[in-house]
Design brief:
Elements (H helix, E strand, L loop, with lengths): L3 H12 L4 H7 L16 H15 L4 H9 L6 H6 L5 H9 L9 E5 L7 E8 L8 H19 L7 E3 L8 H8 L3 E2 L6 E5 H4 L8 H17 L6 H11 L7 H8 L3 H10 L4 H17 L6 H7 L5 H12 L3 H8 L5
Parallel strand pairs: 3-4
Antiparallel strand pairs: 1-2, 2-5, 3-5
Helix pairs in contact: 1-2, 4-7, 11-14, 12-13, 15-16
Length: about 325
């Protein structure tokens, strides 16, 4: 994920009297390194920052306050794009197309066909690990609305907002900022805009700047590594814990998801935990068997088998041949 938003968040903490270098170090990050235009941080680091920083700063509406602080300058590429388009609707759509420059694994999509007189956009997560927490969602939506008001010179508001999280104690502040109905505890996060709102002209429209910003955004997107699938994340955890035969509960705890969420996402990708575990053990077995200095018994132990015979049977099931024969046929391919 881009370090830009986190860096701005730490700068805001500095504005409020906190030491940004110490805060960044708390999350294993370098405040100075995060200022680079192409700096990125892991999803886990971003989630930890947004989960812990509100309490560290004593601000349970941190997302809203950060948006208010940043609104005069925009601060993020999709917002600059929105403020350079000819109409609010055009800028909104073009800006959301660049959402992935901020956070891989998540993007905004439009409901098609749209409800009569409305445009509805919802937040979708390619990976539940990347699901935005409350303060991120409030920050992003508030920044969009405040930037839209500034760009159009009109006191615009959404027709409605919907959030997955439950209504927080400080919800009145969100109501005062958004000035629209807000529904909490919903199946997904949504923004609803009326067509007449989206048709408003943008006073800061700049076609040349818009083209430059979009070109820059597309270069960033082209340079991003493909986001690993959810099954890939599970497989990596399994490969790191082969000997312990991880349970569904252990995997779900490691990935920060409910067990049913793990099952559902693996089903969506056409696999199961048992299949991934089998595959991970087979791949590791092949790596070890290519090394003639590693005995078959040692391979069985590393993979968590209680006895060599059980490993022998499993390997025949995986490959169709015994491990000794497989080694003889493949030992010349050592890496």
């Amino acid at each position: 994920m881009t370090a830009n938003a986190a860096h701005l968040l730490f700068r805001y903490a500095e504005h409020k009297g906190h030491d940004p270098t110490k805060i960044a170090a708390r999350f294993g990050l370098s405040f100075e390194a995060m200022s680079a235009a192409d700096a990125r941080i892991t999803v886990q680091a971003a989630q930890a920052i947004w989960a812990e920083l509100p309490a560290m700063m004593g601000d349970d509406n941190l997302g809203l306050h950060l948006a208010e602080h940043m609104a005069p300058t925009g601060g993020l590429l999709p917002v600059f794009v929105m403020a350079s388009a000819s109409t609010l609707g055009e800028g909104f759509e073009r800006g959301l197309e660049l959402q992935r420059t901020l956070a891989e694994g998540s993007l905004w999509r439009k409901v098609e066909p749209p409800p009569a007189g409305l445009m509805v956009a919802y937040y979708e997560f390619d990976d539940p690990i990347a699901a935005a927490p409350r303060h991120v969602l409030e920050f992003g939506m508030a920044l969009i609305i405040l930037a839209a008001r500034r760009a159009t010179g009109v006191d615009v508001s959404p027709a409605e907002l919907r959030f997955r999280f439950e209504r927080p104690e400080g919800y009145r502040e969100a109501e005062a900022l958004f000035r629209c109905p807000i529904r909490y505890g919903q199946p997904r996060d949504e923004m609803h805009f009326r067509e007449e709102t989206l048709a408003l002209p943008v006073q800061t429209a700049n076609p040349a700047l818009l083209a430059h910003l979009e070109s820059h955004g597309k270069r960033i997107l082209d340079g991003l590594a493909p986001e690993p699938t959810f099954a890939g994340r599970v497989r990596k955890f399994l490969r790191d814990n082969l000997a312990s035969a991880p349970t569904l509960d252990a995997v779900s705890r490691a990935l920060g998801c409910a067990p049913r969420t793990v099952q559902r996402w693996l089903e969506r990708e056409g696999t199961t935990l048992a299949k991934l575990y089998d595959r991970a053990r087979f791949e590791r077995a092949c790596e070890l068997l290519r090394d003639p200095t590693v005995g078959v018994r040692a391979v069985a132990i590393e993979l968590g088998f209680s006895e060599q015979a059980a490993f022998h049977r499993a390997f025949v099931r995986w490959s169709g041949v015994p491990p000794g024969r497989w080694r003889a046929e493949n030992s010349g391919e050592r890496r």
